[in-house]
Amino acid sequence: MTNTFTPRVFSGIKPSGGLTLGNYLGAIKRFVGMQGEMETIYCVVDLHAITVWQDPAELANATREVAAGYLAAGLDPEKSILFNQSQVSGHAELAWIFNCVARVGWMNRMTQFKDKAGSNAEKVSLGLYAYPSLMAADILLYHATHVPVGEDQKQHVELTRDIAQKFNHDFKSDFFPITQPVIDGPATRVMNLRDGSKKMSKSGESDMERINMLDDADKIAKKFKKAKTDPEPLPETLEGLKDRPEARNLVDIYAALSDTYSDAVISEFAGAGWGKFKPALADLAVDRLAPISDEMRRLMDDKAEIDRILKQGADKARAIAEPVLEKTYDLVGFLR
Ligand code: TYM
């Protein structure tokens, strides 16, 4: 018997610091694009955030900030399920079962763990190491078939497929779907504005490396103006950006913000110097981001309303998750 799965999207963002332009272009903007195409579930993954120490008050604030970002960018609680992970206990319960399915060797291959742990691997939390197994539980608790993510999460979604396959094999079932990562568009890896070899992240050393969703117009303009580039003007074709990572990044950001492709941006700006391109990029970014950040600020002033939306979303999420978890328990042989 082969199981057929309803097309369903699941994705999430960690509330570990503020939202960046990388989160917006690589994730949230694409989440909005999938809303209405199929069932969509978007989570604020607070259990993931505490794999690294978080101040409790800041965690609560960052959780509301991600939720506000979702809403301000156009996710609609009537069309998508929006909630924070810790309100649905099934995530942690399924993750334990997956901890017993996944192999230590698989975890040892996770490049993000190696990058984050660095030479300090003995001192990081056990949670940070087990994190990809929790991510698999997030996805498979809802039998999600499609997971929109940035490039950096690809390996974790592939691991989710391995876990689903091994569970299905070990328990002689076809219970979990083999999920598709959805990694498309010009900005699936937005890079650091000061170093084109590193991705833009919430936790980089300098604030000048990233655009935060709550940055004001002056800050956005200043950061793009100071962004590292090379002295060459923009080339005639995309090929010409091959060994110019910083230039390529700014072109990709422009393309994603204007809903077009990087080669279309190159055609428009062929031969232009940075004195022309950077102000155009800053104007575009302010034009697209200011309405979102204004709305985020407005939403964050009404904490009770955000909390209400998250709770209502959690109730809907739980209704999908509970039967999946029960069936998983049956397959494993747990008495209830
Ligand atoms: P997180 O919180 O680091 O990032 C959230 C989403 O934003 C994307 N992203 C980027 N995309 C393009 N360029 C960048 N510079 C950039 N930085 C971040 C990420 O790829 C991601 O899509 N483990 C995940 C959260 C998670 C999850 C899940 C995702 C937990 N469970 C289940 C999908 C499904 C994470 O830490 O993402």
Description:
With 336 residues, this protein is mainly alpha-helical. The two termini are 26 Å apart. It has 13 helices and 5 strands. Strands 1-2-3 form a 3-stranded parallel β-sheet. Helix 4 (90-99) packs across helix 7 and helix 10 (245-257) packs across helix 11 (262-269). It has helices at 21-34, 46-49, 56-73, 90-99, 104-108, 111-117, 126-140, 154-170, 217-226, 245-257, 262-269, 274-300, 303-332, and strands at 8-13, 39-44, 80-84, 146-148, 180-182. The longest helix has 30 residues, at 303-332. The radius of gyration is 21 Å and the shape is globular. Tryptophanyl-5'AMP binds at residues 10-14, 22-23, 26-27, 45, 48, 135, 138-139, 147, 149-150, 152-153, 156, 187-190, 199-201.
Label this structure with key terms.
single chain, 336 residues, three-stranded parallel beta sheet, two-stranded parallel ribbon, 13 helices, 7% strand, binds tryptophanyl-5'AMP
Give, in spatial order, the strands making up the sheet with the most strands. Answer: 1-2-3
Span from first to last CA?
Answer: 26 Å
Strand content: 5-15%
Class from secondary-structure proportions: mainly alpha
- Shape descriptor reads globular
Q: Approximately how much helix is present in the residues?
A: 40-55%
Bound molecules: tryptophanyl-5'AMP
**Mean pLDDT over the residues:** 96
The helix tally amounts to 13
The total strand number stands at 5
Query: C-alpha Rg, in Å?
Result: 21 Å
> What composes the largest sheet?
3 strands, parallel
* Helix-strand topology string: EHEHHEHHHHEHEHHHHH
pLDDT < 50 runs, ≥5 residues: none
